[in-house]
Amino acid sequence: MAQEAPTSSEPEVLAPITVVGQVEDIPRIAGSAARLDADAIQTQDYSNPARVLQQVPGVYVREEDGFGNFPNISLRGSDPGRSTKLTLMEDGIMMAPAPYSAPAAYYSPRVGRMSGVEILKGSSQVRYGPHNTGGVINYISTPFIALPPREMIEPVASGKGVKNPKAPVATVSNEPRSASEGYLKSSFGSYETWKNHAWWGHTFETSIGTWGYLLEFNHEQSEGFRDIDQYGGDTGYQVFEPIVKLFFEPDSATPQRFELRLGYTNFEADETYLGLSNRDFNRNPFRRYAATVFDKIESDQFRSSLSYIIEPTDALRWETSVYYNYFARSWYKLQDVSLGDGNINPSVAVGSGSGAAYDLITGRGAGSWRIRDNNREYQAFGIQSRLDWDFVTGPIEHTLTFGARLHYDEERRFHRDDRVALNASGNITGISRGKQGASDNRQDDVLALALYLEDEMKVGALTIKPGIRWEHLWMNAENYNAGTSGSGELDVVAPGIGLVYDFTESVSAFAGYYRGFSTPGAGGLINDGQDVEISDGYEVGLRYYTPELQAELIGFYTKHKDLVVPDFIGASGSSDSVNAGDVEALGLEAALRYDPLANSGTDWRLPLRAAVTLTNAELTSDTPSADAESIFSGGRDGNKVPYIPEYNIAVGVGVEYRNFGFYVNGTYTPETFATASNTSRPLNTDGNADARFGEIDEAFLVDINVKYQVTENVRLFGGVSNVFGEEYIVSRIPYGPRAGAPRMWYGGVEFRF
Fold first, then answer.
1. How far is the CA of 278 from the CAs of 64, 697, 701, 722, in angstroms?
2. Distance in angstroms (rounded) separating the CA atoms of residues 539 and 57
3. How do strand 440-459 and strand 116-120 relate by DSSP bridges?
């Protein structure tokens, strides 16, 4: 029942390099790696990356809105905030709006349109940066259509239809080939949730070479499952994504390939930062306060890249890409409230669930709401190149890889504050607009040069892979309101080494040491003198891979020094980031995929999978931050890292018979602390009520899905997510507890043509 990618008898050696490659390549990788193909995404009609990525051990995802539009991803106990501790890519190109200047990933590729996802943990630090203390996630977009194998021509006949015995047995046709394929998937479900994904691709040969194009469109929308007090209205989102990809392979003696990718994402969501008080959450977790009626985020992302690949010899391969990404977003949302004598943080106002400030937020009292337009623009462009050279020295087989990237990105903030006045009855009496740029008007930019070198050396059954990465950053920060500016430079080095030993074709063991780093933003370095976060990571693992059974067991230990984290919970702290001390993460990862009926000789299949992660992530120093806004404020040596559970379990079982398939997926996550102070009560470090502090609920989520293959090209599907209707807190930040998605059903149809 799984979707299969087009295949060809002719290997596509010039396809762009990926992070992991194919699943069968994983046993040879000198580090922990995983690849999720299309079936892992589409079996449950997933568009929420949390449901997809949690199939991989060592991955934790903190949601915010229940739909997965703002994933906070942690790999192996790293800080999950806005996925700042990992390198996020699509087709090998960085996708965070400004990876160096402002790494918080308010944009994340839409997982529902992907053909695969690659996750590389331990060994990612050498090749990828600038934030690799966690690892790397590479989303793989829809591939081009592969040409069919060349046709074989029968031998020439000799007289009366008798074949000439001296003629060749067969010859290969030189007729130009072409191939076309289309795809359409559409589903509809609870809360008017509608998803559409379509593409059309064509590949053809001409006298000068092979051409191909792919036209793609992705659409998602929902009215949302929350209800706004008094005012009502949608609380969902919508996404529109047109995509164009082209390639050309000249008919030349030297294999070459050009690829052009153009993509655009328009995203809108009636989403808020504000959660609920504990009492209100227990009564109705899907409620939204009246003060959030104006909250909305709009964003536009344009991405482009041009790649050139050449293989001068069988032992030499060179790939170069130039890219440009633009991202603009405006999040108009409640900043704080005022009773006339100063501003009150929303999470403090709702922390106790009573009082004048609480009445104001719920639209039952006099005062004012301050609504901030967090208007920001980001640009990122650069050129990256990679050279692979295979050679032999004595008994050692080498693959030497050299990579370089010159990258520039910037963040421009231009915020304003508006005031909404309310009378004693909670009715809006007026709105005063502020001046654009008055609340924040600044720009940070970074120019970065990155180089790395790796040598994969194979001697018999042993592979040794040492490497080193170096980056130099030129940083600038300018605050136009304060009239200040500054600049600085930074150097970081990340060495590493990995080993793989093949006991048999199916059994291998690996181990490695890697240093990672996470650089502060320009403002943090220049204005606050922040240090680079450094991690030293060790891992050892054992793999067993056959077509029927894949299993792995991995142990890891990572020590983070000078952790760089946001120095705020609700986006209103005194600065952007801070060094929060040291952290140690020790864990065990286990994964299993098995089909006991794969070789049964029947039409029955029973695909099983399981992923288990045990993680002990603790502070090994007191947190230096005294800002009550910081998620790490109040942290003490020995406290748990917030939002990192001690364990996580994800399992799946399917039953397939001919054209029918039924699948059940389940995940269990225990309670976690919402802040490094490790308090179980909604009280901040000063002992005052604050809804951001406390615990995150345990959650046991079960999804079911059924599919039926009507014809070779038509498939029906349907399912229910969160079958048991679990009501649980997914996050207490930015401003108080918010719930995950409720029980939701969906149904749809999938066409191939």
1. 16, 12, 21, 22
2. 14
3. unpaired
* SS3 category, 127: coil
Helix (H, G, I), strand (E, B) or coil at 158: coil
Cα 168 to chain centroid distance, Å, stands at 54
Task: Give, rounded to a whole angstrom, the gap between the first and last alpha carbons of the chain.
Answer: 17
Cα–Cα distance measured from residue 175 to residue 152, given in angstroms and rounded to the nearest whole number: 11
Could you tell me which of 11, 16, 12, 120 has the C-alpha nearest to residue 385? 16
Cα separations in angstroms, 545 against 2, 553, 633: 19, 12, 44
278: nearest Cα among 675, 681, 678 = 681
- pTM equals 0.93
In sequence order, what DSSP letters do the residues of 36-54 get, joined into one string? EEHHHHHTTT---HHHHHT
- Number of neighbours of residue 540 by Cβ within 10 angstroms: 16
Exposure b/e, 406-440, CB count within 10 A at least 16 = b: ebbbbbbbbbbbbebebeeebebeeeeebeeeebb
Q: How far apart are CA 349 and CA 277, in angstroms?
A: 9
State whether residue 427 is helix, strand or coil.
coil
Per-residue pLDDT tens over the stretch 194-234: 999 999 999 999 999 999 999 999 999 999 999 999 999 99
Q: What six digits make up the tokens of 327?
A: 């991202």
CA–CA distance, 66 with 738 (Å, rounded to integer): 9
